[in-house]
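Chapter review: from sequence to fold.
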Amino acid sequence: MFEIFGWEWRGDPLQCTTVTLFFFFLSWLLIKIIFWKTPRLIVREIGQGHSWYGTDFIDKPTYCNTCREPFVTGHSCDSCGVYSCSSDNCIDIADKEVACKALTLSNSGEMRHHWIKGNLPLCKECVTCGEFCGREPKLVDIRCVWCQIVCHDDCVKPSSRCDFGIYHKWIIPPNCVSLKSVWVKGVRRQFIRDITVPENDWQPMLVLANRKSGNNQGAGVLQLFRYLLNPVQVVDVCEISPEAALDICRLAPNTQYLILVCGGDGTVGWVLSAIDKMKLTKTPIVGVLPLGTGNDLARSLGWGSGYADEDIEDILWDISTARAIEHDRWAVTIRNYGYFGIKRPQKKLIMNNYFSIGCDAAVTLNFHKTREQNPSLFKNRIFNKAWYFGYGTKDIFESSCSRLNERVALELDGKAIDLPELEGIVLLNIGSWSSGCDLWYGSGLECLPGAQSPCDGLIEVCGLYSSLHVGRLQVALADPCRLGQAKTVRIVVKSGFVPAQCDGEPWEQSPCIITVQAHTPALLLRKDS
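The C-alpha cell string follows.
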C-alpha cells in the first residue's frame, strides 16, 4: 500500500474501477477540448484561381479572355465572369494572370473598380459617354465585377471609386472582410474571421441554395448570385450546413441580415430551424426563391409555384419591394405510448406549413420510400408530380386509411370534436396545400367559419373523406370537412400505425398523443401583387 496525494492506494477492485473511469472521462474531455469547434463558413482558398464551370455559349458572341478568339464551347468563372475556351493552356493563363473577384482586400479604404475585359451584356450603355458598349466583333470594352457598370476602353477613369451599384445594400464589401486560415483534417481552409459594418443602411444578403432541389436548378442559381454578390455570401447547403453559413451573422450581431433560401419547403424549414439554434441577436428576414416540387410556402407568400429561369434582376427587384411579416410556426410534440411500462422518447418537430395524418400522408410516404430507393427517377418537378398522382390514384382503390376517425381522437383548445367518417386530418398554417390547393377555401361556394391567415395565431383543421376527395379538392370541385380553428390542437392515435407527415416529411406513427402549440414566429418576406 502507498499514498498518492494523501489518498491511500490499496489496489482493490473498487479503486481500480474508479481510477479507470476517471482517466477515461479525462481522456474524453481532452479530446472534446482539442477537437471542439463551432460551425464556420468555409470559403474558397485565395490564390486558387477562378471557379470554372463548363457550358455552351450560343446566345451571343463570346471571346476567350486569354487568346481573344471566339468560341462556342468553353468555360466561365461563376464569380467574376471571365471566359476561356476549352484550351487547358488558356485556362491556366487566366488563373495566373486574370484576377478573380476578391473575397477580401487588405486595405479598408476606398473601394476601386475591378475591371474585366469584354463579353459584356447586350445593349449596355457606357457609364461615361452613354453610348452602347461591346458593339465590335472582338474582345473589347470593360465591366466592373462588383457594380456591373460597363465602360469603353477609351472612357475609363483610372481613379474611379466603386460604390457596388444598385445592390450595394446587400453586398458584403471585400475590404470589410478578414479571413483566417485553419487546418481541417490535414487541409488548410479559409474561414471568415471578422466583418466590418460599412454603412448605416447596410442589410447584407446571405443566399442559401440547395442545388438538388426540384429540377436541379440550384447550381445555376448559385452561379447567378456569385456573379452579382460577394461569393462568400452564396452558400450551397449541400456542402455547408445552414448553421455554419449563419455563423457569418454573429460577426455583425447588430445587423439584420436578409436570408434568401433557394430551394423547396424542406430547405426553408431546415434554414428556419438553424436560425432557432443560432439564437442570433437580431432575427434575420427570410425570403424564398422556390426550387422544390410543391413550394406551398412560396406560393402562400406570393413567390409563385417555382423558379422558371426568370431574370435574376427582376427577382431581386421583387425582394427589394417585398415586406416582412411575422409568420406563425407551430411546435408538434409527439408523446409515444410505452410498452411494458417502459417510456419511449418524446419527439418534437417544428411545423411551418401543415401537418397531417391519414390518406394524404400515405401518398407522401409511398413517394418518399420510392425516391429513397430510386433517386434518379425524381429529378424533374413534373415527373415528381406524376408520381404523386400515381400513388394518389392507387390509394383511391386501396383506401389504406379507411375509418381513421375510429382510430384517432381530436381536441381543439381542449374541446373534443365529434369526427365524421374520415380518412385524413390536416392542420393548416398557410393557404396553400398539396402543390397550391387552397384547402380551407375549397370550392368557394360555402361560407367560411373564419378567415385564414398565417399571422393570426390560429391553426385551421380540416378533414379528408378519401384520396378521391383530395383529387376533387385540388381542382376546386369539392369542399373540405372544416373541423375548426384553434390555438392548441391535440390528436390521440389510439391503435395501429397511421401515416403522418410534417411539411412533407412522412413517417409511420404508432399510438401516441400529438400536441400542436404555437412556436416562435419567423420573419418572412411576402410579395404583394
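Two observations follow directly from the output. The CA atoms of residues 35 and 185 lie 10 Å apart. The mean pLDDT is 86.
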